[in-house]
Amino acid sequence: MHERAAASDETLPIIDMAPLFRAEEMAAQRQVAEAIRAACRRHGFFFLSAPG
């Protein structure tokens, strides 16, 4: 008999990657990179917002 995993209340992260296209915002670029890294490690994927 297989047990069904309980549904999680977590939602997939939505990451605004617009700062990646602005060279003057290095700190914001690092934050986006860290958000992508964390989403990949925790969920395996994520949604992108404002791609440019």
Rg over CA atoms, rounded to whole Å, is 15 Å
What class, by secondary structure content? alpha+beta
Largest sheet: 2 strands, parallel
Neighbour order of strands in the largest sheet: 1-2
Distance between the terminal alpha carbons, to the nearest Å? 49 Å
Shape: elongated
Helices and strands, in N-to-C order? Answer: EHE
**In what range is the share of β-strand residues?**
5-15%
Kindly state the mean pLDDT as a whole number? 83
Low-confidence stretches: 1-7
The helicity comes to 25-40%
Number of helices: 1
Compute the number of strand runs: 2
Please, could you describe this protein's structure?
There is one protein chain. By secondary structure, the chain is an alpha+beta fold. The chain has a domain at 14-49. Helix content is 33%, strand content 12%. The protein contains 1 helix and 2 strands. The chain has one helix at 26-42; strands spanning 14-16, 47-49. A two-stranded parallel sheet has the order 1-2. Helix 1 (26-42) links the parallel strand 1 and strand 2 (47-49). The chain is elongated, with a radius of gyration of 15 Å. The N and C termini lie far apart (49 Å). The model is unreliable at 1-7 (pLDDT under 50).
